[in-house]
Amino acid sequence: xxxxxxxxxALRVIATVxxxxxxxxxxxxxVFYILDHYNSNQHYVVRSENPLTKYLYxxxxxxMLLTALLYLILLTGRTYGNVxxxxxxxxxxxxVDIVVAGAFALAVNTYTFDWxxxxxxxxxxxxxxxxxxxxxxxxxxxxxxSPDDGTDTIVPQTEPSNPDASDAPIQxxxxxxxxxxxxxxxxxxxKYKEKxxxxxxxxxxxxxxxxxxxxxxxxxxxxxxxxxxxxxxxxYQKGKLEYQIAELYVRDINNLSAGYDSKGGKEMIYDFARxxxxxIAVNSDYFVTNAISEGLIIRNGVLLRDNPCKFxxxxxxxxxxxVECYDCKTDKIDYNEIYAKYPYHSxxxxxxxxxxxxxxxxxxxxxxxxxxxxxxxxxYEPGHYAFISVLGTRGIKDLDKNPLGNxxxxxxxxxELSEMCHAMGMKAAYNFDGGGSSGMFWNEKLFGHNTRVxxxxxxxxx
Length: 462
Description:
The chain has eight helices and 19 strands.
């Protein structure tokens, strides 16, 4: 019997390895499946573009069959000892394998997603505010030193030193020069002033369509003109592909505001947007309430999390309106340098869609590169931004039964999205959470999917 047992020793090792592997993959798949499909308040998504998990539902049954076949051979050959078929020992080994493998899978997932917030280091710190700027956007000058501090101060004279008018040269009377218009304060100054309103906000739905050179139909479906913000929302359709791009113009970075529940609550996009009285809003990165406690998370100038960035790209919107994206895999990111430049928002999801020179990228820090529903944020210049929402093959939840969006759009790959942002002249662009989270809300209409709750939005408010 011992000789027969040695003969099958290699087979026993293979069977044990397969049993453990099957248990580990099964435990992971069950955990993800439950969280994805039965708990809408969580946000754990099986990465379907990863070949291993994409075909996990096929791989696991195959491993189960192979494992069962090997154990059947081993039991038939009585290679587990003197007890006929060794049922007790076989069951004991199998149970231990499953328990150990399941515990290992849960431990790995718990650490990775930090379900119990064991590694969380959430904070709630109001960051420094950038010094006020003048109408041209330049930093305000420091006040003149007072005479008491020992410095010499030159005070300009407002009256001539000799009040005798007879000494003044005689000038021909001329018309008073027209005073120069007062520069408009804010990020854009006088730029795009025709898009803003001098009085009450004006909202329109022009529905004017033009056909682009490549056959894409571009329709201006909504416009908002206020004193500090302006929005132009365009609907694009080429074949079955549908997407919307909102051109955003803001004079104050506070008008580009994030919405989230400070207690960690999750809502649909339109609920967050209504609570904020948002003019237009999109879902953002979900990392305010996501259990993956990584990254630098800043919202509305408040530091919420300052854990290390390891795998994804970081996007920072600064108080001066500029936007920068950082590659957490290759860039050495110093948070102190970011704080010194007065950040207003930071997002940790990605990937970034354009390189440092504004050119399209072909490699991204993610496995989800295929065609999907997408949400993205674009940057042209301080005060000029864009919201992007792309329909994909998912269900659609539309509050107002908006006729735009029929669920047949194929979505966009990251490469396609990157090339589109470059073609539109953006200097930086950043991918937000997509899939069932993706959506754009405006004027009681929803474009996109938004079939599940989200943890935060980015919105334009007046």
